[in-house]
Amino acid sequence: MEREYYKTKESVEEYIRLAKDVNGRQLIEKLERALAPKSTLLEIGSGPGTDWKILNKSFQVVGSDNSLEFLNHLRAENPNGKFLELDAITLQTNKKFDGIYSNKVLHHLNDHELVDSIKRQYEVLNTQGVICHSFWKGEDLEIFKGLFVKYHTEKSLTEVFGQHFKILSIESYAEFEQGDSLLLLGIKK
């Protein structure tokens, strides 16, 4: 059952209802300061497409998800959009991008999977490519609706991303409560 939550039509519909008022506008504004307008951008884990729509106003964005149910929803809602079926770990694509964005997606990866994803992100980014990722802040692990969730600290993110990326900033912000989240911005070394 692990990682199956986003795979059923019912769970996708439930998630869309629960997340209808949530978006990454404040994160995207930070990304817009680091990545030139009209740059090519891969969004990892586009889900219902809320952030994809915001990103699409500034960038040439390609959305992705590894849930066919979410991809069906994305394609139905955005018939002119570009979407790929991608796993956040392997990112099996031959395309190259100027930037990569994810909003609360990579916290579903364990430590080894995150390292593999970071290496792959490095490979699919163009020279001076920018990353922008958000995470839940803390030091816990949990299973939420059958999904693995790992919380991160500034230190843990610096250790894993710092091997391939110059960290531009890691800042705390509020998604639901003050300081419950972290935003990481980095540039390919």
Structure explained in plain terms:
It is a single chain. The radius of gyration is 15 Å and the shape is globular. It is an alpha/beta fold. Strands 3-2-1-4-5-9-8 form a seven-stranded mixed beta sheet, sandwiched between helices. The protein contains six helices and nine strands, in the order H-H-E-H-E-H-E-E-H-E-E-E-H-E-E. It starts with 8 loop residues before the first helix and ends with a strand.
The gist of it:
This protein has 189 residues and is an alpha/beta fold. The protein has helices at residues 9-18, 25-34, 50-55, 68-77, 111-124, 154-161; strands at 40-43, 60-65, 82-85, 97-103, 125-136, 141-144, 147-150, 165-173, 181-188. It is 31% helix and 31% strand.
**Which spans of ≥5 residues are poorly predicted at pLDDT below 50?**
none
Beta-strand percentage? 25-35%
Order of helices and strands: HHEHEHEEHEEEHEE
Percentage of residues in helical conformation: 25-40%
Cα-to-Cα separation, first versus last residue: 38 Å
Radius of gyration: 15 Å
The residue-averaged pLDDT reads: 93
Strand tally is 9
Fill in the keyword field for this structure.
189 residues; alpha/beta; 7-stranded mixed sheet; two-stranded antiparallel ribbon; 6 helices
Describe the SSE topology.
Elements: H1 9-18, H2 25-34, E1 40-43, H3 50-55, E2 60-65, H4 68-77, E3 82-85, E4 97-103, H5 111-124, E5 125-136, E6 141-144, E7 147-150, H6 154-161, E8 165-173, E9 181-188
Parallel strand pairs: 1-2, 1-4, 2-3, 4-5
Antiparallel strand pairs: 5-9, 6-7, 8-9
